[in-house]
Amino acid sequence: MKHNAAQRRYLRRFLPAMFGYVVLLFASNLMVDRWRPGGTILVVLAILPAMPLVAVIAIMGFYLAEERDDFLRARLVTAMLVGLGVLLATATIWGFLQLADVIGSPPTFLAFPLWCAAFGVAQAAMALADKLSDRREEAP
C-alpha cells in the first residue's frame, strides 16, 4: 500500500514513539522492581512510560492537521469520535457503578488503550462497510 506524504510523516513519528514507549515501560518497571525507589525518583520512573503515549496523541493530531485528503481526514475524525464516545460511555458507566459501591476505581492508565481499541474497531468497521457497499453495487 502506497502512503501519501502525511501518512509517511505520521509513521516516521509514530513508530519511534511506540518503540520508546515499549523500552521505557519495561525499563521503568524493571528499575522500580529492582531498586524500590521512593520520592521523586519513583515519580519520574512512573511517569516515563506515559511520555511517549502523550507524544502519540500529539502525533495523531499532527497527522489530522497535515492530511490533505478530505475523505481520509473525515474518516479519521469519525473513528476518533467513536473512540471518544466509547471511552466516555465506559467512564460514565464505571463512575455510576463506583458511586453505588459496586466496583472500585478503574485503572486509569487504560483510558488511552481503550480509546485506541475503539478507534481501531471503528476504522475497521468503516472499511468493512465500504467493502460490503462496493460488493452490493457490483452485484447484478
What order do the helices and strands come in, and which of them pair?
Blueprint: H1 5-35, H2 39-47, H3 50-66, H4 70-99, H5 111-138
Helix pairs in contact: 1-3, 4-5
Explain briefly what this protein structure is:
The chain has 140 residues and is an all-alpha fold. 82% of the residues lie in helices and 0% in strands.
Give an overview in words.
- α1 (5-35) packs antiparallel against α3.
- The mean pLDDT is 95.
- The two termini are 29 Å apart.
- The chain has helices at residues 5-35, 39-47, 50-66, 70-99, 111-138.
- By secondary structure, the chain is mainly α.
- It has five helices and no strands.
- 82% of the residues lie in helices and 0% in strands.
Distance between the first and last residues' Cα: 29 Å
Extended strand count: 0
Unreliable runs: none
Q: What percent of the residues sit in helical stretches (DSSP H or I)?
A: over 70%
Instruction: Tell me the fraction of residues in β-strands, as a range.
Output: under 5%
Tell me, rounded to a whole number, the average pLDDT: 95
